[in-house]
Amino acid sequence: MDKIERIDANTGKTVRKATARLAIIDPKKCSMSPEAMLVIRDANQPLIYAAYENYHTREIKSDADAYLADKAEDISEAVQSLRQHFSELTDERCDAFACHWLKKILIPTLRRACGMKVAYYASQIERNDISKTVKEILIGCRDKNLNYIQCIDQLAMRQDIGEKSSIFTQTKPK
């Protein structure tokens, strides 16, 4: 279990670090104002908290739309007090930001972590020096992570999430 705990800890750390680099608004357009930096920090905060909780795969598998809606609502509430300074902080933008976080950070990180867990469980299942009961537990854990991968892959292919996320990745004309 130590190996799995390390994978989970590293996954959370990766999600937190990558989330801290996201920006719901372009700080350059706002001349790096203190208000712009507050908006970025406040918008990222609920996503960073989610990384500490680290229940993404279970919640996404249970109801991805509800999970995304919850994160978008958390973002919207977090930036509410600064909306008067930034007209672009609409509920739609908060929703798109949640999709962007999911698509750019969460999906690839979770997929990689689940893949590492599957490989670890598979290597343990092949061992001859563990009991049948432990093997059955390992098979259940492996299968659970294979199901998570399938769910994550389906989510990655969703056009609506990609379209919403794309407002943060569109290249600007020169």
3D architecture notes:
The protein has one domain. The mean pLDDT is 92. It starts with a helix and ends in a 9-residue tail after the last helix. It has 6 helices and no strands. It is mainly alpha-helical and 174 residues long. Helix 1 (2-20) runs antiparallel to helix 2 (34-53), helix 1 (2-20) packs antiparallel against helix 4 and helix 3 (56-79) runs antiparallel to helix 4 (91-125).
Q: What can be said about this structure in brief?
A:
This protein has 174 residues and is mostly helical.
Give the distance, in angstroms, between the N- and C-terminal Cα atoms: 51 Å
The assigned structural class equals mainly alpha
Number of strands: 0
> Over all CA atoms, what is the radius of gyration?
19 Å
Keywords:
174 residues; mainly alpha; 0% strand
SSE layout and pairings?
Layout: H1 2-20, H2 34-53, H3 56-79, H4 91-125, H5 132-156, H6 159-165
